[in-house]
Amino acid sequence: MPGHDIIVIGASAGGVEALTALVKHLPSSLPAAVFVVVHFPPQSTSILPRLLTRAGPLPATHADDGEAIKTGHLYIAPPDFHLLLKDGRTSVVRGPRENHSRPAIDPLFRSAALAYGPRVVGIILSGTLADGAAGLAAVKRRGGVAVVQDPDDAFFPDMPRSALQYVKADHVLPLSAMPPLLVRLASEPVGEGGKPMSSEMEKETDFAQYDLATLESEEKPGMPSVFACPDCGGTLWELQDENLLRFRCRVGHAFSSESLLAAQTGEIETALWVALRTLEERATLVRRLENRARENQQQFAASSFAEQAQTAEHQAALIRKLLLNDKIPTQTEKP
After folding, report:
1. Does the residue 228 lie in any domain?
2. What does the pLDDT average to over 260-264?
3. Which of 78, 285, 304, 310 lies 20 to 30 Å (CA to CA) from residue 129?
4. For 31-81, where are the E strands, in sequence order?
């Protein structure tokens, strides 16, 4: 009977340091395969496999599509590709971004839970926002083990805290206590347990693999919401995953409520910068028209242009103050 021989790890900000400390104390004889997602910019060059190979006894490589899974090995998601598990092999795909990330943590955890059920150990390390919470919930639901770094031990505690908010973790502990736990879990026989994966969760796994049948199907997971996808502008479907509220659009972009809120905040800032630039250009243009009108003795037109310029300059000043203060006034406040 196998042990917990599938270990999936998700990290973001501060994750490289956390992973280096973790793998340093994992033995070369570990009877489990370890799969890692760390958020990287899509065009970056990742040297994480080299760093982790130097840090500990387990060899680390970027996963290849269709690669057979071996124990005692670290598989790292390449930049701009999701890492999924399927039929004893890795799947490396450029599916839709989740939580504005590719690779994202949730697709890896979800695919591992679907394929291996109670054999999975899911680990959430240092990071920001809430990527990984939904995936860890899937691991837990399928009978796997949920492990979360103690937020007080993390460089960036938001991701561990989000995971703990939505998932009843089996273990919450500092990095220093994780290696002996993983060695023990990997060696313990795993029995049956956990709920079967829901059809909606299976569809979400297919979304990450950019399965055309799922993408083209009119049966989307969840219910249509009033919100638009920040990535493509399409309608977002609302998914109530127990106490975790999530969103996914027709083409597969997915968001936790926290990442959707962050994306909307970014859209507001972008819109404000565009408005500021447009108002400043308008003020410059009408000031030139005012000067030309005065040169031509067109006093009425000059006064009209001056009034328009003052209005644009005033509006630009309000938006500039709003952007620099990083504070949106409430209805009772006046800029």
Report:
1. no
2. 90
3. 78
4. 33-38, 60-62, 73-76
Considering the domain boundaries, does residue 113 fall inside one?
Answer: yes
pLDDT at 242 exceeding the cut of 90: no
Per-residue pLDDT at 268 exceeds 70: yes
Judge whether 39 counts as a catalytic residue: yes
- Residue 158 is which amino acid? D
Residues 6 or more apart in contact with residue 65 via CB below 8 angstroms: 90, 91, 92, 93
Active-site choice (5, 46, 91, 131): 131
Q: Do residues 164 and 16 both lie within one domain?
A: yes
What's the structural domain count of the chain?
2
**If you average pLDDT over every residue of the chain, what do you get?**
90
Distant-in-sequence contacts of 267-275, Cβ < 8 A, 24+ apart: 267/230, 268/328, 269/323, 272/319, 272/322, 272/323, 273/323, 275/319
Pair (179, 319) in one structural domain: no
Condensed to tens digits (0 to 9), the pLDDT of residues 64-93 reads 999 999 999 999 999 999 999 998 999 999
Consecutive H or E run containing 316: helix 299-325
What pLDDT is stored for residue 9 in this prediction? Answer: 98
Does 57 score more than 70 pLDDT? Answer: yes
Residue 327 pLDDT exceeds 80: no
Q: What is the pLDDT, as a whole number, of residue 1? A: 72
Rounded distance, CA 77 to CA 303, Å? 63
* Catalytically annotated residue among 12, 101, 162, 256: 12
* CATH number, domain containing residue 55: 3.40.50.180
**Which structural domain, as residue segments, surrounds residue 28?**
6-187
3-state class of 202 per DSSP? Answer: helix
Active-site residue among 4, 39, 100, 253?
39
* Residue 159, domain member (yes or no): yes
Q: How far is CA 244 from the centre of its chain?
A: 15
In a domain, 103, yes or no: yes
Is residue 12 annotated as part of the catalytic site, yes or no? yes
